[in-house]
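Inverse folding, one chain.
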C-alpha cells in the first residue's frame, strides 16, 4: 500500500512539469502502463489530475483548491513565534512580526527585549509605513503599479531628519529593498531606535510577512545591529520554509550567527 501511495504521489510533480501521456507517466514511475493507468484514474476520481481531450494528463483543479485552502488556513504567527523567541534568546533585542492587512502594515507578534529599555510598539498597532523596515519589505513586494499608487497616496511625516521625505524617495527605497531582500530603519522613526528586517515568504515566493530586530542606540550601535542581519535573514528563511511546508527547521535548531 505504501508503495502504491508513493507512486501515486510521484505523478503529481511529474505533471507539475506539464501535461504527460500515459506512456511518459509509466516510464517515469518504472511501471507497466496498466499500473500507471490505475493510479491516474484514482487521482482523476479525486480531482487531483485531469485527462485532456488529447489523452494527456495534467494537474487537476481540486489540487489547486486544496493548496489555496491550506495556505489560507496557515497561521504565520503561530509558525513564526517559536523562531522569534529563539532569535530573541540569542540576541536579546526586541523582535517583531508584521503583516499587510486592510491597507495597513500591522504588528501581529512581539518578543520583548531583555534589556531595561523597551519599545512602545504593540501587537495590533499599525507601523509607521514610510519608515518602518517591515513595511518597506512588505510593500516592496507589491507590483510596480501598486507601489507607485500607494507611494503617491501616502503622507510623509518627518518623524526625524532621517525620515523618508516624499514619494520619489520612498519608491527609490522600495526598489533597493526589493533588490537586496532586506530592509532597515536607522533612526527614521525614532532617532534613538534602529531596526533590521527580513521577509517571510510563502510557497509562491511572495512576501506574506516581515520580521525584524530593533534596539536603541544606548544598547547597541547601528553597526552592531546590522551585524545581526545574517542571523535575522536565516531566521526569516527558516520561518518561510516551515510556512511553505518544505524542510521545516525547529526553532531550537535555527542557525546561530
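Residues assigned per position:
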Amino acid at each position: 500500500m505504501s508503495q502504491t501511495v508513493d507512486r501515486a504521489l510521484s505523478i503529481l510533480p511529474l505533471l507539475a512539469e506539464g501535461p504527460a501521456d500515459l506512456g511518459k507517466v509509466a516510464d517515469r514511475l518504472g511501471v507497466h502502463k496498466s499500473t500507471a493507468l490505475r493510479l491516474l484514474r484514482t487521482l482523476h476520481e479525486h480531482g487531483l489530475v485531469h485527462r485532456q481531450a488529447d489523452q494527456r494528463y495534467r494537474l487537476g483543479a481540486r489540487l489547486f483548491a486544496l493548496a489555496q485552502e491550506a495556505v489560507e488556513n496557515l497561521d504565520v504567527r503561530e509558525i513564526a513565534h517559536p523562531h522569534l523567541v529563539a532569535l530573541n534568546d540569542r540576541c536579546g533585542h526586541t523582535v517583531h512580526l508584521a503583516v499587510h492587512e486592510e491597507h495597513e502594515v500591522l504588528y501581529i507578534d512581539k518578543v520583548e527585549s531583555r534589556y531595561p529599555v523597551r519599545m512602545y510598539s504593540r501587537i495590533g498597532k499599525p507601523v509607521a509605513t514610510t519608515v518602518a523596515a517591515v513595511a518597506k519589505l512588505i510593500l516592496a513586494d507589491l507590483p510596480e503599479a501598486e507601489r507607485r499608487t500607494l507611494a503617491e497616496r501616502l503622507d510623509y511625516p518627518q518623524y526625524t531628519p532621517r525620515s523618508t521625505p516624499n514619494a520619489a524617495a520612498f519608491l527609490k527605497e522600495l526598489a533597493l529593498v526589493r533588490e537586496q531582500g532586506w530592509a532597515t530603519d536607522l533612526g527614521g522613526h525614532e532617532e534613538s531606535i534602529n531596526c533590521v528586517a527580513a521577509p517571510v515568504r510563502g510557497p509562491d515566493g511572495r512576501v506574506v510577512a516581515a520580521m525584524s530586530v530593533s534596539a536603541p542606540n544606548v544598547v547597541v550601535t547601528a553597526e552592531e545591529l546590522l551585524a545581526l542581519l545574517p542571523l535575522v535573514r536565516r531566521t526569516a528563511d527558516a520561518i518561510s520554509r516551515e510556512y511553505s511546508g518544505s524542510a521545516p527547521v525547529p526553532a531550537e535548531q535555527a542557525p546561530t550567527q
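The beta strands are 49-51, 57-59, 94-101, 104-111, 183-186, 193-201, 207-216. The chain has a mean pLDDT of 88.
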